[in-house]
């Protein structure tokens, strides 16, 4: 389905997501519109009653309608606030859940800052859709009701107001069409700037060391003129539309008053009805006030389309099969992965990793090592081919079972959680990750993982030990990498290390290599590396060359090939 259609459907869903609050807003707004329409008639009757010495009942009725309008304003603010908050929260949960469910390659196509902007800013704009739709519809009722009321009092008055409203409607229709494109462009460029800003903040130390601060400022703000152009266009359109309606509205009001004055002198209207006609004319001419509501609706629609662009990305389908008993045998058959431009990254890879074995994955930069590691644990699916764990295709596996069975450690791990303990226990089942009491420093599983990763001594020196908040934990690159390794050691069957020891000193790397390559735990290990020692210590080496598996054999056997030896030279190393 085209993104445009998905965006409009999402807008309708967001309107309904406000639930009872949006329905309540509609009811209150309709009550307010009815009171607003009745008030001029009540005032007119009150004037006639006062002139004729009649009852004060109409005056009391007019006062009561004013009280109703005051209450409506209060309830409208309450219902619109709660309804928008509910709809926005539901949309953000849906978008965030979808972002975690899609192929990681799909999210990498968007800068993180842009994704955050859509989740925070555009989702909030779309969340206002219920309010915008309700208030836009209700805002039209008083002008249309004024036409009907004037037509009942005197048909000529109704026709006069209707002609002016038709002209105002044409002016506002042009505003909606032009403002939609300008608002969408503004939000798109704003996302681009946010993405570049986040990149710069992440690499702030590198920028400072290179002395390229001014150049980076220019890069981040390069799109600012385009943003300014879209912003000026939006406000220019709004200003022109307001000016046009402001020019037409007084003329329309004067036309109704003039016709009403003639009708009074001709005896067609009473003085009270003339007062009511003047009020209805002002109400009808106030259709220009609908512009603000239409502007909100345009922003909501543009925000919904921006969110829908992400929701159209297909989610990775989840399986429901459990893992059978086994030791982590990994099999790849005909695995192909292509870049966005169609270039093959992996090309027909067949690989068998016996249960409990350690296979080092080596190759020159760009050979496809990290991509092989990604598809081996289903960070994303291959474009063609199949990956199996203990005989079950990864596509068919239950997601929880897969994540408990497979653990990942990366060269630049991102630590997630409130405390150090949470970061290590992220992949553990809840009953194993949560400390049983507030006094216990860590669960046994977390302690074992920290010791295996040679990071327990670092954690114990922290002020709060395992309970130290991550934001207050000064960690070097090697210590962060060890915490990432500790998190991965929670895996039950398959441990995948993507150059995960590159920042460690030699002694620590040796300790961890022994722990990883040792037989304890019986897990299968897939180790992406550019270190000769790690390749030599593995049971087998999978040698990738240009996306193809060029060899699968022990290191000492492959070492006889000069092309293989060249992989470990400085010019050919890396992952």
UniProtKB/TrEMBL annotation:
| Transmembrane spans | 21-43, 55-76, 132-153, 159-176, 247-268, 280-298
Membrane topology is: Multi-pass membrane protein
Major location, coarse class?
membrane
Q: Which InterPro entries match?
A: AAA+_ATPase, ABC1_TM_dom, ABC1_TM_sf, ABC_transporter-like_ATP-bd, P-loop_NTPase, Type_1_exporter
Q: Where is the ABC transmembrane type-1 domain?
A: 23-286
| Compartmental location | Cell membrane
Gene3D superfamilies in the cross-refs: ABC transporter type 1, transmembrane domain (1.20.1560.10), P-loop containing nucleotide triphosphate hydrolases (3.40.50.300)
According to the UniProt entry, its GO molecular function terms are: ATP binding
Listed A to Z, the keywords are: ATP-binding, Membrane, Nucleotide-binding, Transmembrane, Transmembrane helix
Please give the superkingdom of this protein's source: Bacteria
Q: Pfam families from the entry?
A: ABC_membrane, ABC_tran
Which residues constitute the signal peptide according to the record? none
Residue intervals of the ABC transporter domain: 330-571
In its UniProt entry, what is this protein called? Lipid A export ATP-binding/permease protein MsbA
